[in-house]
Amino acid sequence: MPAPARREMILETAIRLFAERGFRGVTTRELAAEVGVTEPVLYQHFPSKRDLYHALIEHKMAKSQPLYDQLEEIFSVGADDREFFRRLAHLIVLWHESDPTFMRLLLQSGLEGHMLRELFFERMSAQFLRRIADHIGVAIAAGRLRPADPQLVSYAFCSMIGHYSLDRLLFPFRDLPGSCGPAACRESVEQMVDLFLTGLEKR
Questions:
Q1: Residue 17 binned pLDDT confidence (cut-offs 50, 70, 90)
Q2: Full 3-state SS string of the chain
Q3: Are 84 and 197 within 8 A, CB to CB?
Q4: What is the CA radius of gyration of the chain?
Q5: What span, in angstroms and rounded, lies between the C-alpha atoms of 92 and 96?
Q6: What is the reported pLDDT for 176?
């Protein structure tokens, strides 16, 4: 097998095993055996576990490139603020649903206090939140949104939609809002965007 293909297989297998058993439940020997190589071959591709974990993040980013392209389009299209948040919300849901195995891997890393959670936050989550906060800051400065901490607004919005997305993955048996299919999910997400922008207080 060509080296790039073998490296890809190692990464895909590592994601699957870590997601199923946790990081403490998988040894390098078991990973190598699952791939069908020896441990020395594994170390040729990833000299240390940290190298492997960095590669897992980069692998996920490469796989998510179409979603990043959509994100760039959202920032560049020049839509009004409501449309911006609406499109962003649907993209967050899609990001969670596009790779449930990786989402389970992140949950495992959080439960175990694993270094992958820091790598993920530094490489992906923090940049994503900052980018949204910058956009919100411009809208606030222009007077389109009321004064608020842009970073807090970014975090609050992504937390709301992200938690909804995780619930759909973790509790598919529950009667969640929008759990009856894509159309119902879309309607629920757009209602959450409306609640986020307008609030519940009567004016």
A1: very high
A2: CCHHHHHHHHHHHHHHHHHHHCCCCCCHHHHHHHHCCCHHHHHHHCCCHHHHHHHHHHHHHHHCHHHHHHHHHHHHCCCCHHHHHHHHHHHHHHHHHHCHHHHHHHHHHHHHCCHHHHHHHHHHHHHHHHHHHHHHHHHHHCCCCCCCCHHHHHHHHHHHHHHHHHHHHHCCCCCCCCCCCHHHHHHHHHHHHHHHHHCCCCC
A3: no
A4: 20
A5: 6
A6: 66
Burial class (CB in 10 A: 0-12, 13-18, 19+), 161: buried
How does pLDDT run across 21-76, given as a tens digit for each residue? Answer: 988 888 999 999 999 999 999 999 999 888 998 898 888 888 888 888 898 899 88
> Could you read off the pLDDT of 123-178 as tens digits, one per residue?
888 889 999 999 999 999 999 999 999 999 999 999 999 999 988 888 876 666 65
At position 29, the amino acid (one-letter code) is R
> Does residue 147 or residue 78 have the better pLDDT?
147
CA distance 134 to 28: 41
Compute how many other C-beta atoms are within 10 angstroms of the C-beta atom of residue 46.
Answer: 20
Least Cα distance to 75 among 3, 132, 160 occurs for 132
What is the residue type of 7? R
* C-alpha distances out from residue 119 to 3, 50, 59, 69, Å: 25, 10, 13, 22
